[in-house]
What we know:
Distance between the termini: 37 Å
Radius of gyration: 21 Å
Shape: elongated
Oligomer: single chain
Number of strands: 3
Amino acid sequence: MSEPKILELLETVGMHISAAQISAFLIKDQEPFHRESAAVVRAGLASSPWHHLDSTGTRVNGKNEHCHVLCNPFYTAYCTLPSKDRLSLLRVLMGGTEPAFRVNELALTLLPQLGVAHKWCKKLTQLLPHDQDCNEAQLDALLDEHLPKLGEQLASS
């Protein structure tokens, strides 16, 4: 909802507030709202064994992004991110927190089932710390350091 429409709505219910004050509410001291939003997602995920996740294109500051809608009959949470790739969907399901990556026995069992070649599974066990969490930047740095990068043709396909 745009700021002018928020102002219009508040004025229709008799509230007197300036457009500048609405803007300040929306852009300053956002951390409490982010914490509350993450708490809503955690509570929502705990509220039901099933959830619906949908994404739709949206524009943010003139750039194409994706609004992810996570919901069930008890809650709805919105999260706008630049992409709708797998990591973005994980971030939505985690309430905006960064995902952690871990090589453990479960991961090693799943990799071949997901079509990862045996040689890469073996190499990953040699290169990545076992049973330790890595954030995305740490994992990318380890992979960039130890595994060959894809050529430009492969990376763009």
